[in-house]
Amino acid sequence: NGWALAPDAPLSDWFVMDEAHATDPHLGYTTYPATKYKKLMAPAQLGDLKLKNRCVLAALTRGRSGPTRVPNEANQLYYEQRAGFGLVMSEATAVSHRANGWGGAPGIYTAEMAAGWKAVTDRVHAAGSLMVCQLWYVGRQSHSSFMPNGEQIVSASDIPCAGDGVYTATGEKVPYEVPRPLTVQEIADTVEEYGVAAQFAKDAGFDGVEVHSANGYLMDQFLQSCSNNRTDEYGGGVEGRARFLREVLERVLKVWPAGRVGIKLSPNGAYGGMGSADNTETFTYVLKMLDPYRLAYAQVVDGLSFGFHEKCPQMTLEDVRKVYSGPVMGNCGYTADSAEAAIAANHADCVSFGRPSLSNPDFVERVHNGWALAPDAPLSDWFVMDEAHATDPHLGYTTYPAHAS
Q1: Mean pLDDT for the chain?
Q2: Burial environment of residue 163 by CB neighbours within 10 A (0 to 12, 13 to 18, 19 or more)
Q3: Distance in angstroms (rounded) separating the CA atoms of residues 236 and 247
C-alpha cells in the first residue's frame, strides 16, 4: 500500500536483556501495533466484492466531465489518486439524458460514456482498488434546461422540491420548478433505462453498481410520502411507493449478480426537501424487502451532518441491523475514529468517506500512518462554479497533493 514503516526497534527490545523483558515476554515483542485503526484497515467481503480495507470513497458530485458528460483525463487521475480506498465509488452518474440535473456530471447511457469510464476503471484497477458505478436519476431536483427540448422535469408527483433554488444548465440559480408525475408507461421506460445503464457500466469495467435511492433524487421521491401522493400502483402505502425501486433493482439484477449490486438509502436526510413522518415505517419496510436479494451492501446515510428532517426519530445503523442481515455501509460525517468504533461495535461493515477525500487523495494512507489530514477543501473547489474551474477541470480536483512522507 506504500504505507510508511515504523521506526526500527531499539536494541533493548531485540532480546531479553533486563528484568522488565524477563518479567513480561510480550514487552518489545508483540507490543508493536499494526495501526490504531485495526478494524477500519482490515479486509472486508461485501457480497462478491473483496475490499483491501473498509474505507470506501463516497460518491461525490464534482461536475468535472464537461458538457459531453464523458469522463475525461482529469476524472481518470482523480479516481486513480484515491485508489487507496478499499472500494472507489463513482460520482452520481446519470442513467439517461432525462436523468440529468447537474452541470458537468457524467453519464453512463452511451457507448462513448462507457468508453470514457473504461479508461477510469482501468487506472483504478491498476492502482489496486475496485470501483462501482452509482446509477442516478435526479427527478424534481433538476431543471427544464437540462431536459431534451426544455421539456418539463419529472417526479413521482407534481410536488416541487422545497429549498432556495436550483442551478440551471447555464449556471443561474432559479426557483425550483413544478414537476409532472411520470406515467405508468414512462416508469416502465425508466426501469429499462436503468437496465441499459447497468449494462454500459459492465462494459465500462466497473466491478459493480449502486442504485442511488437516497438524498431526494427520483427513487427517493417515489419512496417517501412527502413527495409521492400517487393513487395508482406506485403510490399509496409503502408497498406501492417501494414498487419502483423493486422494479429497477430487479432489472439491474438481470445484468449484474446480486453480490455486485449495492443500494443507497437516506431515511434521515432533509436534502432535496425530504423527510416524512412515516420514514421509520417506510425504510424498515424497504430494508426488509431488500434483505432476501442478498445484495453486496446497503449504504445508509445514518449521519446527520447533511441535515436531519426531524419528522420522526433518527434511524441508526443499529436499527438497520435489526431488519437487514446483509453488509451495511455507514455514511455521512464519519471520522476515522467514529468509523473504527462503528465497525468495532458491529454496527457497520465499512464506512464511506466523502468530504475528507476532497483535499486528502491519500486519506487511507494518512489514517493508517497517523498523519495529519490536510485542511478541508473550500466550497469553491467542490463543484465547477466559476470560469477558472470550468477552464481547468484539474483545478481543486486533482491538485491536492499526497502527504509529504
Answers
A1: 95
A2: middle
A3: 17
357 and 339 in contact (C-beta within 8 Å)? no
Residues contacting 97, CB < 8 A, separation 6+: 107, 109, 147, 148
Contact between 202 and 121 (Cβ < 8 Å): no
Instruction: Assign residue 356 a region (left: φ > 0; alpha: ψ between -120 and 50; beta: otherwise).
Output: alpha
- The neighbour count for residue 254, using CB atoms within 10 Å, is 9
- Report the alpha-carbon distance of residue 397 to residue 203 in Å, rounded: 26
Q: Checking DSSP bridges between strand 350-353 and strand 55-57, what pairing results, if any?
A: parallel
Give the total residue count for the chain.
Answer: 405
Strands (E), 327-379: 328-331, 350-353
Active-site positions read 217
Distance CA 267, CA 223 (A): 10
Nearest-angstrom CA–CA distance, 160 and 285: 25
Residues 6+ away with beta carbon under 8 Å from 11: none
End-to-end CA distance of the chain: 13
Query: Which is nearest to 284 in space by CA: 240, 311, 231, 321?
Result: 321
Q: Are 351 and 335 in contact (CB under 8 A)?
A: no
What is the rounded CA–CA span in Å between residue 79 and residue 300?
A: 23
3-state helix, strand, coil in the chain (%, to 5): 35, 15, 50
% the chain with pLDDT above 70: 98
Q: What is the dihedral of CA 96, 246, 154, 68, to 10 degrees?
A: -20
What tens digit of pLDDT does each residue of 168-191 get?
999 999 999 999 999 999 999 999
